[in-house]
Amino acid sequence: MSWTVKGVVAHAEKQPAELVDIVVPDPGPNDVVVDIEATGVCHTDLAYRDGGINDEFPFLLGHESAGRVSVVGENVTHVEVGDYVVLNWRAVCGECRACKKGVQQYCFATHNASKPMTLSDGTELTAALGIGSFAERTLVHEGQCTKVSPEAPAEVVGLLGCGVMAGIGAALNTGAVQRGESIAVIGLGGVGCAAIAGAELAGATTIIGLDVDEKKLAAAEELGATHTLATKDLSPQQVATKVQELTGGNGADLVVDAVGIPQTYETAFYARDLAGRVVLVGVPRPDVEITLPLLDVFGRGGALKSSWYGDCLPERDFPYLTDLFLQGRLPLDRFVTGRTDLPGVDAALDSLHEGDTLRTVAVVGR
Predict the structure, then answer these.
(1) Residues with Cβ within 8 Å of residue 327, at least 6 apart in sequence
(2) Among 6, 121, 181, 196, whose CB has the most other CB atoms within 10 angstroms?
(3) Gap between the Cα atoms of 346 and 17, Å rounded
(4) What is the 3-state secondary structure (H, E, C) of 46-84?
């Protein structure tokens, strides 16, 4: 059988997304149907809507979600009907060369549902990040479901499905920030503030938040920043110098660039200590280039890394971080700064241009 439900669909580049009827097919052998309870409004969905990802319209938007498994395919063993899950877009295959080398966080062939969801006229939908969860129900592969404690509210733990995990993971997994180290985070949206929270969790003693927006600096302080710096009208070298002043003249052990433009990456490169680490987690536009003196790359040593999804393994990280939230040790609830419903998703996507919220969450059902 199939189910007709409401979902938010982007039909064409830079056109408003619409709430329409979509058809969720009967799951394949390893697929599951998930009843969505909440989905975060993420910049990646804005990029899908506005043509910044690819042109495989129409898109069923949404990917940062929590809900309950309602139907399972005949071969599903990973979850059962009724399980409370956070959806992920890294359902590792176990067979590609990355998985076989033991670096599953770089899996090249992550699993998705075996069938497409469609519009009511049969037009196939492209599910955002293989999930498509601005909908009352969605169809995913069983490996895209990670069980977490049902005590955690869906609008909170659903954020682990993308942005918050990307930021925390950039600090903890990719950057490997350690107790007693210093870290600077450039760009204090949801991802950057999550990196701040991750650094505090790890025991970093100097945590510097950098942004052009004073309101975002205040949010970073609430999440653990020991110092903040407004960077508007400052050059990359001036910002780097100020970070050095806050770290004994040396520069930070780790600098996280959560913006992804040449100016912020140059700042990150020069704001780190000798042999320090730079982690790029902000996603650059395809046409962006950067030029650095090769002698400086050689002479400063350390590591220049990129972070995909916070180098997370959902089955390891989502339950762990959920438990830390329930223990009061990780303030995930502070990231929820706005709520909407499915009809309000397109307006919430537009509001991302203004940068006034860490995360707006579409509350779908219970």
Answers:
(1) none
(2) 196
(3) 6
(4) HHHHCCCCCCCCCEECCCEEEEEEEEECCCCCCCCCCCE
Which DSSP letter does residue 354 get? T
Residues 6+ apart with CB under 8 A from 72: 27, 31, 32, 33, 79, 80, 81, 142
Q: Which residues of the chain have pLDDT under 50?
A: none
Per-residue pLDDT of 196-249, as tens digits, reads 999 999 999 999 999 999 889 999 999 999 999 999 999 999 999 999 999 999
| Gyration radius from the chain CA atoms | 20
Are 211 and 253 found together in one domain?
yes
pLDDT at 357: 84
Q: Are residues 51 and 191 in the same domain?
A: no
Q: Label the pairing between strands 3-10 and 18-24.
A: antiparallel
Q: Domain range spanning residue 196?
A: 176-306
Domain identity same for 190 and 300: yes
Task: List, in sequence order, the alpha helices (H) in the chain.
Answer: 43-49, 97-100, 154-157, 163-169, 190-202, 214-222, 236-246, 262-271, 294-300, 314-326, 345-351
pLDDT at residue number 171: 98
Give the C-alpha separation, 297 to 262, whole Å: 15
**Nearest Cα to Cα of residue 64 among 252, 350, 345:** 345
* Bridge partner residues of 185 (DSSP): 209, 256
Position 239 scores a pLDDT of: 97
Q: Are residues 86 and 34 in the same domain?
A: yes
Q: How far is CA 352 from CA 55, 74, 92, 359, in A?
A: 21, 40, 30, 9
Whether the Cβ atoms of residue 259 and residue 284 lie closer than 8 Å to each other? no
Strand 84-87 and strand 3-10: the pairing is unpaired
Please write the tens of the pLDDT for every residue from 77-117.
999 999 999 999 999 999 999 999 999 999 989 999 999 99
Q: Do residue 125 and residue 184 come from a single domain?
A: no
| Per-residue CA distances from 86 to 95, 100, 180, 247 (Å) | 24, 25, 32, 38
CATH number at residue 82: 3.90.180.10
